[in-house]
Structures are given as C-alpha cells and as structure tokens.
Amino acid sequence: MINLFNGQPESNLFIADRGLAYGDGVFETIALEGKQPQLWQCHWQRLVNGLHTLGIEVDTSELQQHLKFDIQQALLSWTRPRGVLKIIITRGIGGRGYLPPAKPQLNRMVQILPWPDGRENLSDQGVHVHICNHVWGHNPQLAGIKHLNRLDQVLARQEWSGSDKHEGLMLNQAGYVQSGVMSNIFVDYDGCLYTPPQDGAGIAGVMAEQVMAIAHQLGIKVHQQHISMDFLRASAGVFFTNSLNGIWPVIDIDGQAFKVTNMTRQLQSKLVEHIAKHSETW
User: Fold this and answer.
1) Residue 265 and residue 277: Cα distance in Å, rounded?
2) Which overall architecture, per CATH, does domain 122-278 show?
C-alpha cells in the first residue's frame, strides 16, 4: 500500500480534520491498469460535483494539478500491473463546530492499494446476492455524490460474511430497489434496460454511466425509474456495475435463480473496448 497526504508520504490524519470528525469530504475509487487510472475524467468530474454539492469552494484547476502530481509520485513506487487508486478530499481543519471555515484549507489523500482478491472470475460466473434488511436513508441533497459518510453501506455490509455471497441488494425508504452495497444495479426486462434514479439515495456510478452510454450506442432503450422487487423478480436478468468490477451478472438473489442474458454479455464485451478507448490519457 502507498499513502500520500498532501503529496507527502504520511499515514497519519489530523484528529481535527473535518473529514474524520464529520465526514466532510468526498472520495473516488479508481481502477489502475498498467499505472493508468481508468476513466479518470469521469471520476474527476464526479469528485468536483461532490465538492460543489457540499459547498466546498476550490480552484479546480489547481486541485487537479496537485492530484495528478500526487498520483504520479505514488505510481513511481508501484510495481504491480493492476491496483486500486483511492482519492480522498476533505475540507481540512477549521470552523466552529459544524460551521465550516469561510476559506477552507483542503486536505488531499492518495492511496494505491492491491487489487482485491477473489473477484477474477465473477464477471463470467456471476454473483450470489443477499437482500439487505438495512435500507438507504433518504436525502435528496446528498444523493448521487460519494461523500465520506457511508454508514448505510457499513451497516448493510455487516449482514453477511463468507464467500457464498458476493454483493448485497439495498432498497430505499419506499421499498424500491436502489442499488447494491458497492454497486449500481440494472434490470434486463422485455429487451430494455432499467436502473433506479438517484433522486433520494444512491450514488451516480461512473461505470453505470459508461454502461448506459454503450446501451444507447447499441440501440438498447434505458429507463431510469423506480423498480419494485416484483418487477426485478419477473425480469430476464439483473447485473451490477462498479468501477473495479465492471459488470457483475447476477445468478442468484436469496434463492431465486437468474440467467445471464445475451444483453448482459453484449454489454460486457463492448465495455472492455469502451474503457480502453476512454482511458488512453488522463
């Protein structure tokens, strides 16, 4: 593991940092292939959108310049062919209680971690899914962004352990399907693709955005709408998307079997080409 704090090889976080105290910040998790951050521009834009949503004023050109330098420095010591790049931006230290400082001094954290074990074959074989009892909190203002408070996911992920389940299915407060614990969800129904909106919960996934773009190119209609469990159970197939996992076909949800559809395989095939095309420079 490689850690940089504001460009320096530090592993300690100031205890007064607002990211630690209040979750006051955003993060991105990015796949590294051959020292190349995949889909950098999409991750960068989501990070900036998150900062703006939290009211964290920043010179985006300066921040991007600092981050790119940090990442390049971290990559000098990275020798593995694949890895995981994690970026955390906090509002830094200051302010009185919850009230943030008028002119925040942002803190940057860059980590490079080993690629997760045990996931190599899941894109082909498919995944087994647990239906989570814990549901998403409803917060339209924060929905979509990757802020540092991920307690909904922490509570949901505690519901299963072991290797027999690979992902959890989370509902929203109204009882509709919202997402996986670490993924966006898509449903193949009657030749069309359905995915929930992030109007009150969930995260606007970078990989989900790529899949929707590919579906549009292939002439597959994509509908963003609320999805009931009955609708999902009656569908031809289901898959999850995630920046590290790509597309994970679902083959079982708490005992109900699902087939991996031709649409899912077609999207998986096109996704490899699409990522390579959009990850040439950063």
Assistant:
1) 19
2) Alpha-Beta Barrel (3.20)
